[in-house]
Amino acid sequence: MKYKRLLILGLALLLVLFSFGCKLNKKAQTYTTTLEGISIHVPSLTGGIINKLMVDEGRWINVGDTLAILDSREIRYQADQIDASLTELSIQTQIANSNLQQAQTDLAYIQEKQQRTQRLLTSEVIQQQSLDDLNNLLQKSRTMVNNANDQLTMLRATQEKLLAQKKILLKKIADAVIISPAKGKITSLYYRQGEALAPYANLLEVINTASLQAKIYVSESELAKVKTGQQVKVITESGQKYPAVIDHISNQAEFTPKTILTPDTRASMVYAVTLKVENPKDTLKDGMPVDVEL
Known about the structure:
The chain is an alpha+beta fold. It has helices at residues 2-25, 73-122, 128-175, 220-223; strands spanning 30-43, 48-53, 60-61, 66-70, 177-179, 184-189, 196-197, 202-219, 231-236, 241-249, 254-255, 269-278, 289-293. The strands form 2 sheets. The chain has a 6-stranded antiparallel barrel with strand order 1-8-12-10-9-13. The two termini are 49 Å apart.
């Protein structure tokens, strides 16, 4: 009986040791990849000759840095024309207001006179013709008031149109100073100082390093271990670990890219998993090789 108990106890101990050994042998899956910055093409929202080019290829820039200044003289001249038209329109509006006030005064006078004539006609003091003449004059006065109101409405609409055109020109003047929208390194410069830049043409390309991406490829057997929003670690060659998050998992399998090293070389079909790594201190660089632990 004692021997049987010792045998059961020994078997239980072996089972515990085996289970513990399995857990020790279960390592985190590691994938090798490289970090990539987000490529941004910086366009010119307006056109013009590049008067000043403030940057060169390979330079690091920050958000808000001035990249180039375009010649905006023609746009400023157009804005001056708008100002002159608005001044002329202001004078026309003053005249129209005076005409409206006069028309309203005349209308009030004729209405009062028409009412008096109507009373006199009732008492047979004057003839019908006098009242008819006043009624005709009253109708003309009302038409003049309506026309004066329409004239003012048209002038206000013209003013709004000119002000809208001026806003567009002022925006173009502001857009003539091209500002960096992101922090990163200029990898390509498409124009030089003195060249003409067309509206919406790309001035340069910058790699945004404030937030980096990395892509790994996992087999279907490992796919269950990953999910969108999952926190993972990226490890640099120096051993530094940085937090990352799984941003996207491809829904479609593809053949293993030849340039990618995967832990399971037998798997011919894999799924692309994109990671996002925040880089506020700029310690990580575009193209830096890293390991990803899942």
